[in-house]
Amino acid sequence: MTFELVTIPCLEDNYAFLLHADGKTALIDAPDSGPIDAELSSRGWSLDEVWITHHHWDHVDGLPGLQKTHSPIIRGAAADTERLPNLDHAYADGETFDFAGHEVKVIDVSGHTVGHVAFYVESTGMVFTADSLMALGCGRLFEGTAEQMWNSLSKLASLPPDTIVCSGHEYTQANGRFALTIEPENPDLQARIADISSKRQNGTPTVPSLLSLELATNPFLRAGLQNVKDDLDMSKESDVAVFAEIRRRKDSF
Ligand code: ZN
Ligand code: FE
User: Fold this and answer.
1) Residue 21 CB partners (closer than 8 Å, separation 6+)
2) C-alpha of residue 57 to centroid of ligand 2, in Å
3) How is domain 4-251 classified at the CATH fold level?
4) Total-model pTM
């Protein structure tokens, strides 16, 4: 059975994703109805489901436009029903649902917002992380604490290394410039930055990315490593404290 993933650039630098399997189509996040509708029509797909990661406008504002011509069921976090669009199905951390014969697990990844969730499709090795774990980065801490985000990132980091990470924004090039300030000598990071530059020159998205590559290069996943702590003069500090310091530096980068 084929399982297709389509990445759709939306707005300035957002990504939405379509999953298509067994004649069913799901959309992950709805930044803008125009490009999503265009993609659906060009493929002749109707929209059956929308999975929402978090309440921010750049992930939900396309929904009313899509609902004019489609009647998808909407899935999202039970913890944030007051701020999310009306949900048909609301999930607590760890709950699962079925999509076209594939189990989808809802993982609480609070930090950027409280109630942000990721959707993990184990059978196809894909996780939709939006503004939690991002390509070479992580979302800003608008609502949650550094400890919440570190716990969220740690959950995602423990997924199989060959998991495809579908995140919400094309911020990778700027993230790379910052990552180099944390680990200038990391050869995997240097190689990734060269690859990002050539992709961006060709207008190719750098999202999705592989979890193994994030583990090797993303400074926010590497806060627990002794060499990173040593370089920041935080040798004896906790992983969370080092993560918080890296996040603080990025905020003012
Ligand atoms: Zn956001
Ligand atoms: Fe966003």
Assistant:
1) 1, 2, 3, 4, 99, 100, 101, 102
2) 8
3) Metallo-beta-lactamase; Chain A (3.60.15)
4) 0.98
